[in-house]
## 1
Amino acid sequence: MIGIRNHTADVLADGWLPYDYAPLALNWFWTLLLPIDVIVGALVALRQRAGVVLGVLVMLADVGVNSWYAYRTDWLDLFRALQFQSLFLGFVIGTAPMLWQQPKDNR
């Protein structure tokens, strides 16, 4: 939900593709995380296994892309954010098996 809040604030403040300091591909990636995060949140709330898989994949991609960009640009604020994002990735991966093993009637 933090991702939804952050990306929504960015889009509301600066419009679609608000990350104009980044290469266009990254701008698109970060902007598209808004609808993707909403979909993941809805799928997890509806107890769909697809939400678990998609959530792990999105977090892996996001941490990977952000890590690459942080090291490429030596962006200190992004390094700080990556510490929390990496911790959340660990939480997502750690809780994925519990979310996966839910009662059959909720799949």
## 2
Amino acid sequence: MAPRPEDSTMPGSKVIAAATLESPSSSVNLWSRTAAAGSSTAPNAIDPITESMESATIVDLQEELKKQVADLKKELAQCRKRENAILAVFATNYNKEKDLAQREISLLAKEMELKKLAEWEKRENAILAVFAVNHQKESELTQRESELTQRDSELTQRDNEITQRDNSPTQRDNELIQRDSELTQRERAVEEIEDEQETENERLEWEGAWIHQLVMSRKNITAVPKQAHLRKMTAQRLLHMGRALENFQVNPDLRIDTSSLPDIDMDDLAVKLLRVHDCYRGWLDCNRAIDHEMALHEGRITEEEVAYLTDYHDYRNPFNAGSMAGINFTWSALCHSHDKPE
């Protein structure tokens, strides 16, 4: 592209450039506008060199405008391509999200159906279990009723036979006696059957009450038994032995309160020593650990409440307490047997 002349000595150059920028078709009246613009600032005669330079400038400006228009068209085409690509990506993402949403909705619907089916299966199994129990009871009762009916029919048949054999008075008396005895036996049998029936009814009522209690216990409605509650409270009280251990506490100045210690006769000697304090303290710790282990095994307390049972850095640990008691007692016994001070 040729350099654009912008010398201020050229008359009408700025007017020509402005006219060219407005529209390429305005080049027809270019010279008339130039003449009109230069009539006020220059003589009527136009310099040939100036005219040639202005025409060259106009051509360069037209070419530059054409190139700019072409570049703008290219950029516009690229922008449209990008816009189409972005729209295509948006459409693809929208379709994907739509498919995912539909798939999620279908999965949720299937999940709800599966949950409903599982609940229906549970209800069906429970109903079938109840039906099975009722059917078994009904079959047992039907069998028992058929046995009673058969026995009643046999007794009725025997009564008919006895009635038909009543021919002579002696024979009839014998038959009446026999009949009375049979009736007595029959009444006894009926009473036994009624007793058995009452026992069976009581058993069924007890089973029903037991089943009801079992169902209520599964619903967590039953209360905690009083005995278990008392055992739990006892186990909790074992965690705080109170004054029983405070009697053997060491004061901050490493002295013990001898007035709270028991007097123990050992070979007619009253022992009030720190070793005795340690022995009793270890013995109490051992007993407490045994009680807590039993309570933990029976489920009356939790592991968090008796964490010291497995903590070997705690002096209340059974191993540490037993070791302390055994070592101190052995040391005291050895010193006493050799008549040496501790």
## 3
Amino acid sequence: MYQGTPTQSQPPTREPKLPPKDDSQPCLREACQIQTCLQENDFQEARCQNAIDKLLQCCEKLLKSGGESPSCSSVKNKK
């Protein structure tokens, strides 16, 4: 029979599922943050503008340095 102290159940915390920072896939983390934000906000783009801006900044920096990433293909195609 168990005689220890009962433990309280902690509510689960929602940690965003983000890939680790990986130089082989630049801006992937920022792209994933957009998807997470959209899912959590019923796909209301206006609520995720900060995440969108971060991806655009990442892609602009990457493209200026001559780099490429699938996460930046839409930014590259706009130019």
